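Much of what follows relies on a compact textual record of a protein's fold. A complete example follows; check for yourself that the lines match position by position.
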Amino acid sequence: MSDPDDQPTLTPSRALRELWHLLDDPMPIDFPDLERRGVLQKVPHETGWYLVLKPAELPASARQQALGAGQTTVGGRTVLMLWFQKSTNRKAAALLAQIHRRLVRPHDVVTH
């Protein structure tokens, strides 16, 4: 895992640009719910790949976030596969943590 301090200098304007970009991203995908309902099934041993078992029930926002597509044969039928990257929620949380570390200094903290 990379050290957050190895990241490029975080200026206020860069932080705001990155946060706006993350806020503009589509709604996060609820993978556990889609798997529970049988819409998606995680492909074993393939990071980020999912079988689309019920294409009609896959939200359009999820389709738009797929970074790759393929197909495979399951039980004699061709099934769509989609590849997704880490959620933008994690990216936003990491960026906010980085901002907090850089902007909050020990003398800024008030204790009672």
Remarks:
- The mean pLDDT is 77.
- The CA atoms of residues 4 and 97 lie 10 Å apart.
- Residues 88-103 form the longest helix (16 residues).
- The two ends are 36 Å apart (CA to CA).
